[in-house]
Amino acid sequence: MSKEAPSGLTLCNNAMLRRATRKIGQYYDDVLAPSGLKATQQGLLYQIHIGNEPAMGAIAASLIMDLSALGHTLKPLIRDGYVETFADPADRRIKRVRLTPQGLVKLDEVMKLWHVAQQRFEAVVGKDQATNLRAVLDDISALDFDMPPAASSN
Fold it and tell me: How remote is the C-alpha of 130 from its chain's centroid?
């Protein structure tokens, strides 16, 4: 057990995962800071770029976010001119997103910093352990945790 982990936390998967997520998130945010973007914004720009003008629903599903959280994260990227939304030509009810030319430049800038963060993380954690961590987290993300309604107690 880590000396920094308050007792009781180590028994809770959720608490330990959130603790590690905050630590890693702060680290990536610090390395990406010169770009003016947070790690969440970098990840979103990247997903939009590789998604070939994806629908907002598809991005939300791939990132396991609800549409309102996605919209909240997109707002500053739209405001700063990195991303634009548009109606799907085949179905105007579907909103799609794409990077602007300015967004492509920003993505290139932030990805250079991301590579630095990624290399440093793997140097500290170990490349194999980082690869294994990503695989385990991906497997967990694919699990179905839907539980049947709790039985009423008598």
Answer: 16
Give how far the C-alpha of residue 136 lies from the chain's centroid of Cα atoms, to the nearest Å: 16
pLDDT in tens, 3-37: 565 666 678 999 999 999 999 999 999 999 999 99
pTM over 0.85: no
In terms of phi and psi (left: phi > 0; alpha: psi -120 to 50; beta: otherwise), the region of 61 is: alpha
Helix 127-141 to helix 101-125 angle (10° resolution) is 120
Helix ranges (H only) for the chain are 13-32, 39-50, 56-63, 67-79, 101-125, 127-141
Structure tokens that stand for 102 in this block: 């300015």
Amino acid (one-letter) located at 152: S
Over residues 108-143, the pLDDT tens digits come to: 999 999 999 999 999 999 999 999 999 999 999 888
With 0-12 CB in 10 A as exposed, 13-18 as middle and 19+ as buried, what is 144?
A: exposed
Please name which of 53, 49, 108, 42 lies closest in space to residue 76, comparing C-alpha atoms.
42
